[in-house]
Specification:
By secondary structure, this protein is an alpha/beta fold. The protein is built from 15 helices and 19 strands.
Length: about 475
């Protein structure tokens, strides 16, 4: 996930407008940008349509202008194309694109008979629900089409939040993001409507402070001089429920760390071969300077003993991952200033942390950002649309992972991978991004209906895929 890769950035509406304006200021006209975007999108429509007739639904803005360019590009190639435009173009660039289109324009969708619908009604600038008559046209064309393609965003999706502004919006087979990814492409509920996602570049440069899409990390084999301590010793702190800590430790063993120690509250009945179970006093054990990263929370419990063990962990300023019960017990002031800490809450734990730290936000992304800033922790708000937020404002969003991850124990596996990555020297933000990718890849490798233990075993193959 390189910050220098413009195709990996995720932009707000304001950032996208600024990026386009920078291109205009550099000498590219709005009309030229529309041609670049429309022709690039038309390439995908051409492939998907496979010779079938296409109807392009155009709105009044520049998204509609892109639609006219798409339609003309396809018409010039010999494809049967109709344009349905319930509203005429209003921007100068869209008017120019309309004049350049030599095919048929329908003011109603009733006469349109394309097998492929291309939705260019409204794009990323939409901030209010579709008017009832426009929604009816969209639904009618979508219901009669065999394939549906959204250009930039499905009409009715709010770009920055991923909210759906209308009920009953169509589902699409493909969505073509123009210029850059938007937050709605990766956030629910909008993401669930979009089908396959494809990016159509138009030359937008890197935008400072933009969020990033999590991509496959560039991992490496250990150096020829490496040994278990140079590769990283990580400590997994167990509690009253040993199974969760064992799962995390097993994942850590495959996540790149050279040495994993489990510090249980009581001896587990079984442990993976190669896992060192240290039964010594936790206070004495954590003095070991060779420990590079610590994990506390999975199976820890929330009683006085668990609270004491959490306090012992946090008394050492080391890279630390906190999850599950540790997040329930965590309060402001417990973490030392400048301590490198990664918290991995699910939605319920995120709400708990926000209450504890006095954080208010409109949605989970805003809450994760605010919590990271207030707590000085990196927040990995895990779920079907995982968001990672750092105290310095950095953000990363995860592409969709297998829905089979919705089973007990998979979050423990994620934290195990994360502590292993931190033990190898990664900062909390980078460790979180790498862990989320490895977690998703391990799930893909597992296929359907896997257990958390099987997921932990698959981390090895996921790691190999990134080397």
């Amino acid at each position: 996930m390189s910050a220098s890769d413009p195709q990996g950035q995720i932009l707000t509406v304001a950032q996208m407008q600024a990026g386009e304006q920078a291109l205009v200021d550099a000498g590219t006209s709005v009309e030229e940008l529309m041609q670049i975007a429309g022709q690039g999108a038309a390439e995908w429509v051409w492939r998907i349509s496979a010779g079938r007739p296409v109807v392009v639904l155009c709105g009044p803005g520049n998204n509609g202008g892109d639609g006219y360019v798409i339609a003309e590009t396809l018409r010039a190639r010999g494809l049967t194309v109709q344009v349905a435009a319930p509203l005429g173009p209003k921007t100068e660039a869209a008017k120019a694109a309309r004049r350049a289109y030599k095919g048929e324009v329908l003011t109603s969708g009733k006469q349109a008979n394309g097998k492929v619908l291309v939705d260019c009604l409204f794009g990323s600038g939409l901030a209010r629900p579709l008017e009832p008559e426009h929604l009816l046209v969209l639904r009618d064309l979508a219901n009669r089409a065999h394939h549906r393609i959204a250009v930039d965003l499905p009409s009715g999706a709010e770009s920055d939040s991923g909210a759906l502004l209308n009920a009953g919006l169509p589902e699409y087979d493909c969505t073509l993001a123009l210029g850059a990814w938007k937050f709605a492409h990766w956030r629910l509920p909008a993401r669930a409507k979009m089908g396959t996602l494809r990016l159509v570049p138009i030359g937008v440069a890197n935008v400072e402070g933009a969020a990033r899409l999590i991509r496959k990390p560039a991992l490496h084999a250990p150096a020829i001089t490496a040994h278990k301590y140079t590769r990283g010793l990580c400590a997994v702190i167990g509690g009253e429920m040993p199974g969760a800590a064992l799962l995390a430790a097993e994942a850590a063993m495959h996540g790149g760390a050279g040495y994993v120690k489990l510090f249980p509250l009581s001896s587990p009945r079984s442990a993976p071969a190669g896992l060192v179970v240290d039964k010594s006093s936790l206070a004495e054990a954590l003095v070991d300077d060779r420990i590079r990263a610590m994990l506390a929370g999975p199976g820890l419990g929330t009683d006085d003993t668990a609270f004491g063990r959490l306090g012992q962990v946090l008394s050492h300023i080391r890279p630390t991952v906190l999850d599950a019960d540790a997040l329930v017990m965590l309060r402001p002031g417990m973490i030392a200033q400048d301590a490198p800490v990664l918290a991995t809450p699910h939605d319920g734990e995120l709400e708990q942390l926000c209450r504890s730290f006095g954080v208010i936000g409109e949605d989970r992304q805003a809450r994760a950002q605010a919590l990271a800033k207030v707590s000085a922790m990196v927040i990995c708000a895990k779920g079907p649309d995982t968001i990672i937020a750092a105290p310095d404002g950095r953000q990363a969003l995860a592409p969709p992972a297998s829905s089979w991850l919705s089973t007990a124990g998979t979050g423990d596996v994620l934290t195990g991978i994360a502590v292993a990555r931190m033990a190898t020297g990664r900062d909390p933000f980078t460790a979180a991004c790498e862990a989320v990718w490895l977690h998703g890849e391990a799930a893909r490798i597992c296929g359907p209906a896997f257990t958390a233990s099987q997921l932990a075993q698959a981390v090895k193959e996921a790691y190999a895929a990134a080397i």
